[in-house]
Design brief:
Elements lengths: L1 E8 L6 H15 L4 E8 H7 L3 H17 L8 E4 L5 H10 L4 H5 L2 H12 L10 H15 L5 E3 L5 H18 L8 E3 L29 H9 L18 H8 L3 H12 L4 H27 L2 H31 L6
Parallel strand pairs: 1-2, 2-3, 4-5
The chain binds tryptophanyl-5'AMP.
């Protein structure tokens, strides 16, 4: 059995980057034979950025509904909310005590905050919470607690998986046993990073996202707003560095992508290109949107699915695993 695990932070509305980089590949992977999947809502992680209780709750519901609408089968995969598993923060502490501070200093999200502070002449750590600094340790606990082998993520998350390997390895070494399997990142090279409306990585923090379940009208408007150069119809267009082209590629077969590249070379007008992109995305998302809306109308059902997943997962895996780890490090047996 290969164990595949991935999570999405509940800090906003699910967007096409989450879909292409995490949800779509994860659901495809979960259907392969011999795979045991773990998909979860990273609500503890959301507290680092979004300290707005209503938003965290809303986002949790939306992201859960997105997974379900995309075909996640809660009786075939482990589907849960991170904060329903108290063993995860418990493991976070055990890992914190073996994690090198120097490694955390190099984490991208933390370094970006320090760089911003330096650029503004502030102290390195001004406004940086210990939570942001510790983010990779919590994420390592998410992965290591279930001995996941493969972690499908976008390229932005690869460094965190490497850190999880490092912390797991140190723990194994210090306590003299292979308690943890060392995980590997699985990045789909075709769609490593989906750009957003402005050409930067599609991200809640850049406010450049296309929500997964935008209405058709909204979707059309957002696509019309994708940044392009000012070349007129008839002038050849570059596919290199074109957000429009890259998003198209994430929604089309290799053959259709080649035809779209040819249309660029032949000087397709931006209006036409945007219309074609809209039709692509709309065709893929419309059936999912209908399911999503039906699910969002029944939040109690979503809640019941999440609670049931977490309860079974604790009983079968999290609680016994933590018991073993507590014993390994010399803590009292709680059972
Ligand atoms: P998050 O919530 O930022 O993103 C969730 C998933 O979506 C992918 N993603 C993208 N992929 C391609 N293009 C984009 N523009 C794009 N934007 C987001 C991310 O790579 C990710 O796969 N720390 C994680 C959540 C997490 C997690 C974990 C993931 C917590 N614990 C354990 C895996 C394993 C995060 O903030 O992802």
């Amino acid at each position: 059995h290969t164990r595949v695990l991935t999570g999405i932070t509940t800090s906003g509305t699910p967007h096409l980057g989450n879909y292409v980089g995490a949800i779509r590949p994860a659901i495809a992977a979960s259907r392969a034979a011999g795979v045991e999947s773990f998909y979860f809502l990273a609500d503890y992680h959301s507290l680092i950025k979004a300290q707005d209780p209503a938003r965290t709750q809303r986002s949790t519901l939306e992201i859960a509904a997105a997974w379900l609408a995309c075909g996640l089968e809660p009786d075939k995969v482990w589907f849960y909310r991170q904060s329903d598993i108290p063993e995860i923060p418990e493991l976070t502490w055990l890992l914190t005590c073996v994690a090198g501070k120097g490694i955390l200093n190099r984490a991208h999200a933390y370094k970006a905050a320090v760089d911003r502070n330096r650029a503004e002449g502030e102290d390195d750590d001004a406004g940086v919470s210990a939570g942001l600094f510790m983010y990779p340790v919590l994420m390592a606990a998410d992965i290591l607690i279930f001995n996941a082998h493969k972690v499908p993520v976008g390229r932005d998350q690869v460094q965190h998986i490497e850190m999880a390997r490092d912390f797991g390895q140190r723990f194994n070494h210090i306590y003299g046993q292979d308690f943890f399997m060392l995980p590997e990142a699985a990045v789909d090279d075709n769609v490593a990073t989906l750009p957003g409306l402005d050409g930067r990585k599609m991200s809640k923090s850049y406010d450049n996202t296309i929500p997964m379940f935008a209405s058709r009208n909204e979707l059309k408007k957002l696509i019309a707003g994708i940044l392009t150069d000012s070349r007129a119809p008839g002038e050849p267009k570059d596919i290199e560095g074109s957000a429009l082209f890259q998003i198209y590629q994430a929604f089309a077969s290799a053959q259709d992508t080649a035809a779209f590249a040819q249309a660029f070379a032949d000087g397709i007008g931006w209006g036409d290109a945007k219309q074609q992109l809209f039709e692509r995305i709309d065709a893929e998302v419309t059936p999912l949107r209908e399911k999503y809306e039906a699910l969002m109308a029944r939040p109690a059902e979503i809640e019941a699915i999440l609670r049931d997943g977490a309860a079974r997962l604790r009983a079968q895996h999290a609680t016994p695993t933590l018991q073993r780890l507590r014993e390994a490090v010399g803590l009292r047996d709680l059972s």
